[in-house]
Amino acid sequence: METIMKMLKDRYEKDKDIQELTQYIAGEGTNKEKEEVFYIGSKGLDQEHDKAAKQIIKMQRALKKNNGRRMYHMIISFNTSTKNLLKVKAVSKAVAKVIYEEGYLVYYGIHTSTDNLHIHFAIDSVNYLSGKKCHKSRSEFMSFRNKVLDCSCSVLASRNFLGSDEYSAWN
User: Which of 2, 64, 90, 103 qualifies as a cystine partner to 161, CB 3.0-4.6 A?
Assistant: First the structure.
């Protein structure tokens, strides 16, 4: 199963950009009639897109880190043969945990509107542990990328992929 991770180059420099990104991930953006969202989640943020965006904006202002790149938009896309939404949900939660444990707030959603299931992640550029902006060198980014892809592939390959909340729903 091929899994692709892509980091978009957009900088999301304005409050409006952050709001539009979380809106899009939640399937409530300008293309909402075309977007199909299976699941929305977050680590460190509210699950409602407008509240999550406001939390990010408020924290960045408080830390005086509300200029330049303010968000990262990462997409994990799966091979067309990957159809198991519960596995993709488990991947989304595991990857969000990796991002959060590195010190970044994250808002994410699983989109089903294309042949490839894919997860959009909005990642705050300010580390909530240090208060510093994310500035990764190419080698640090590649290490992060490999960590994310390893996590994704590990969950996809696992037979025991259900988290405790999903497992209890099946019993």
Answer: 90
